[in-house]
Write a structure and sequence with these properties.
Elements lengths: L7 H12 L5 H20 L5 H15 L6 H14 L3 H15 L6 H9 L5 H14 L4 H11 L5 H14 L4 H13 L3 H14 L4 H13 L3 H14 L4 H13 L3 H14 L4 H13 L3 H14 L4 H14 L1
Length: 325
Amino acid sequence: AWELEGDFDQAVRELRKAREGEDDPALAVDLARALANQAYLRLLGRDRDEAAIRAAVDEVRALLEGVEGFEVDQASIRALALITLDDAEGAGRIAREALGRFAGQVGAEDLHWIDGVTDLQNAPRATAAYDEALAIRPRHAYALYSRAFAKYPAGDVHGAVLDLTAALSALPGFAPALVLRGRLRERLQEPESALADYEAAIRSWPEMANAFLHRGQLRELRGDRAGARADFEETVRLDPDDAVARVNRGRFRLDDGDGKGAIEDLTIAIECDPLFAAAYNLRGIALGQSGDARSAVPDFDAAIRLQPDNAAYRSNRAGTRLEIG
């Protein structure tokens, strides 16, 4: 029941209790599935606790060791575990080998979805695999979520929102789907609905940094600077390596006259994402305002190399050079 509601943390706790003193292979498979899903959701939520993810995968492998039967379940669980370790090639190989025997059968929907999500370079083929998963189980939350990811870059934003809504109907509290739907609703000029999605994601997963980041950006657009700043602070606390959050907090610090704090945030942002042009530009501004115009010029140079057509970056460099004389 907990798995059906998407509460894999509770599912893991309940299944651990159920296995106490029991040597039931079905319970071992159920616990392995819950752990693999728990780890996968950590990955989707940009949880950087790699040790926790690897520990979950190691436990999955130990649980399935020696289990006989449950071939479709074992293949899909093992493949999902490999996805969480960023081994798409290995996961896809397991899924496709199993599909050679079980394609189209009830229970093989996870294998079809994994077949698609491990071949993202071939969008039409990936989408076809999601459709095959959904033909078996129309409310397959991951397949709906993945298909939405394929739809919106192709311009079908409304279709992507419909898929995400269906995914959330199947898996309530699916925080990554809530965040993606919120982003798409912003594109559709539905800020109230987008804000509601971000807040629902935060209620469902209070440690999902990405939900705070997007809520902060929307709050700022709506004029709520205090709320935006609080969200950027929380994003950085939860994910210190989030370059976008660092740039946003650095901008607020600079506006507040905290040049040193701004430069610290922007330097970390650049270390995390050396191709982030806006971070170089803003650090250049912060250095200039802090009285170090000569150090600002190389930052403006870097920003311009990354975005040669950005007139604001060129203007900032020209003004700083003029100031230096």
